[in-house]
Amino acid sequence: MSWTAQRDLVIFVILLFGFQVSQSWEPIEWGGKYAQKTICGLTGTTVILNCSFWYPQTHDGHIIKVEKALWFIKGDDNQPDDLMTDAQYTDRLDLNCQGNWCTLSIRELRKSDEGKYKFRFITNATKGEYTVLSGVTLKVTDLSIQKSWWYPTSLSCHSECDLDSPSYIWYENGKKRPNLNSKMISPVDYRSYSCALRGHEQHLSPPVCSRTSCDNVVYNYKSICVLKGSDVYIACTYSHHKTVREKSWFRPDNGNTWNVPSEGWAVQLDHRYSTYDKSGEQSGLRIQNVTDSDSAEYRFTLSEWGSDLPGTTLKVTAARVQVIKAENKDSYTVASLSCHTSCSPASHLYWCWVKDGHQNVGSPTWTKEQQITLRPGEYITCAVENYPLSVSPPLYALEAPRVFLSNNSEIMEGDPLTLFCRAYTPTSSRHRWCKRTRTSDCEFMSYGEKLFFSSIQSSDSTEYFCAVENDLGEKMSQSVVVVVKYAPRFSNLLVSPSNVTEGQPVNLTCSSDANPAASYTWYKDQTMLQGSERNYVFNSIRAEDAGSFYCKAHNKYGNVISSQVVVDIQYIPRLPSISASPSSNVTMGYSVRLTCTSDANPAASYSWYKDHQESPKSTEAMFNIINFTQEDEGEYHCVARNAKGSQNATVLLLAKAGSLTAVAVGCAMAGILLILLLVTVLLLWKKMNPKGRTQSKSQSNTSEDCSRDQQDELVYSMVAFPRPSPIYSNVTNAMRVPDVDLDGSVEYTAIKCGDKASGLKPEMSVNVCELYSTVQKI
After folding, report:
1. CATH number reported for the structural domain that contains residue 624 in this entry
2. Are residues 254 and 313 in the same domain?
3. What is the span of the domain harbouring residue 547?
């Protein structure tokens, strides 16, 4: 294949694919499809017809919605007759449409129901009506008993419909055969057999004899429908191969028995009931002026015949007003009505219409349909002429109902409560309850004239409505407000803002769920505060306002206390306080400690700066300067800071000279040590020289006498100073002691006991008397 041909093929495939995609993207067309084309049902059973349908979602920019859906068997595709309005199907149809599916249920199938059923839906779009063609063909058949081809001696229960796993019931001579549910049975001579599907016993097959003759009962009709007030005749034929001793009619529901007169005896019956027997082959029961209570199943029994076989069901009915169309206005309703019965009339009937019980509408010769205008409270009835008891229940044009409460006082949470809907219509109407919610103006709750709360809750507080509805429409009541009272259930305390800074406005909010609304009491650290509102406001909060807060919510039904909330107030450091120890006038060579303190939240950090230097000297609260010198003089700044801000303070440190230099102090100490050394040497010398001891003793005595004479005011010291000094200001000139052979270079100085040397540091001051005492002891 050449490249040109390949290229053309690719282009064709792409175009074809694009056309298919574009087709799939086109708007959805109108259409529908039936689940089954043909349905077969047994007489008396129920069948369900299904149809799915589709349509465009929008038309001319408007959303399309389905307004009506219907099934029909009469009329054409464009103007069908709605099956729901056909009297033949009255009370036997159920229409259920959800989404794009619509089903129709037909109960109590009859042979007359056979035909082709079609579905049609109508939308809000212009020309937005569509009938799903082809339809569903319904076939209705009965059961029958046939002889089996494979087993000639057996009987088979046959149906033209394909049954899904059926279960059968067999009757033998009018008696049910227990534990027999198969399709086939082996008959016994001279006996009659019938079969039915389990669950549909009323719709059984015609009886069949196992031989040419047998005991048998065949009813003329399986069911009879008559108008109320008419006469009815229920009949059957029977056969027997032996003499019949007893025969009777009865109702299984209440056991009433009406004996058939035979061989000269009879039983007196109710005047409305009579029986007869004809030629021993036909029997009948006649009921005159039938009422609703006569609706029942009637059976005939023989002496050799059981009573389990279903008989004839009598249904007594009256006329009924059917609404074809109704339009409700504020003060009146216009309705198109039809009068019909559940029974198919045997002949043409004449209809009577009565408004409010006294006003005739039309004439008996009119058709069964009427268009009538009704005001609220007015009603309409219809009946079949010559059947006065067949009058329909009245159909009322509704008035708006009213709602009443069982408890007109305060409604407490947990109490029972009943709401009543009064409709002012004497005939039956449907009641519906709803309530107003956040998402709906009328959220459905339940049906019925009463709405009951066994234990009402606060969440039930809202507006309630009731509506009454019938075939003419519905009327909604005015709302009634239910307010449930209750004590405060919980209390929350919120602080705004959550991080509090001094000076800003702060709002404490106490919230509680209560009805009536709660009042509030505020507490700080167990102390009650002023104010009863749910908000406690600080326009400009202070540090001293910090503490533990809580609130109490209360109303007349109770109270509740919130949890405690600690309000922590942050603020910038206060102006720092600086101390210098020992003093801000610092002696050179000494140490000084600077301490900085400041109140702050969060806690402050500290920095020390000297003069205008940018780098801090220290980042601690205490700053120590060792061996203070002239260069350390100056201003020292302490800066206290936290996340909220900073504050600073200044201290001035000055240097001063000491009263003794370090050399002078050292010399003084050296002199003291020298004196101690000389005294020690002198004492050792005296011990080694007796004369010296005598002289020393004499000297001692002389010293003691002198000491006593001087009243212990002077002591002797061998301390001499080369030059005056302030540290020895309390030392007097030495007195020369005679007769003592001492070194002439030693002088004695009088020192007052208790005096200390001045001008030294405290730790260097010396008590000279103590020093002398030590020397004496040595």
Report:
1. 2.60.40.10
2. yes
3. 499-569
Q: Which comes out higher in pLDDT, residue 747 or 347?
A: 347
Indicate if 693 and 760 belong to the same structural domain: yes
Distance CA 541, CA 100 (A): 66
The residues, any chain, with a CB within 8 Å of residue 769's CB and separated by 6 or more, are 715, 751, 753, 754
Q: Is the pLDDT of residue 179 over 90?
A: no
Helix 690-709 with 662-688: angle, nearest 10 deg: 120
pLDDT tens readout for residues 199-230: 778 788 888 888 777 888 889 988 888 999 88
Q: What letter does residue 148 receive in the DSSP assignment?
A: -
Q: Are 739 and 710 in contact (CB under 8 A)?
A: no
Per-residue confidence (pLDDT) for residue 366, from 0 to 100: 64
Q: Are 83 and 184 in a shared domain?
A: no
Are 36 and 95 in the same domain?
A: yes
Q: Which residues pair with 373 in a beta bridge?
A: 334
Cβ atoms of 646 and 618 closer than 8 Å:
no
Residue with tokens 């504020």: 330
Tens digits of residue pLDDT in 636-659 = 999 999 999 999 999 999 988 765
The overall pTM is greater than 0.90: no
| DSSP string over 601-637 | BSPPEEEEEETT-SS-SBSSSEEEE-S--GGG-EEEE
For residue 633, being part of any structural domain is answered with yes
pLDDT score for 180: 81
Could you give the number of structural domains in the chain? 8
**Is the predicted pLDDT of residue 687 greater than 90, yes or no?**
no
For residue 12, being part of any structural domain is answered with no
Q: Which of 194, 299, 279, 286 is nearest to 239 (CA)?
A: 279
β 115-123/129-141 pair status: antiparallel
For residues 286 and 275, the answer to whether their CB atoms sit within 8 Å is: yes
Residue with tokens 């002088």: 747
Confidence of residue 244 (pLDDT cuts 50, 70, 90): confident
Residues 307 and 329 both lie in one domain: no
8 falls within a domain: no
Of the candidates 485, 504, 488, the residue with the CA atom closest to the CA atom of residue 496? 504
Distances, alpha carbon 541 to alpha carbons 547, 568, 571, 598, 612, in Å: 12, 11, 10, 20, 36
* CB-based contacts of 8-11 (< 8 A; 24+ apart in sequence): none
Q: Final residue of a domain: which of 463, 485, 507?
A: 485
414 with 511, same domain: the answer is: no
Q: What are phi and psi of 455, to 5 degrees?
A: -150, 95
User: With 50 as the cut, is the pLDDT of residue 13 above it?
Assistant: no
**Whether 189 and 274 share a structural domain:** no
Residue 661 lies in a domain: no
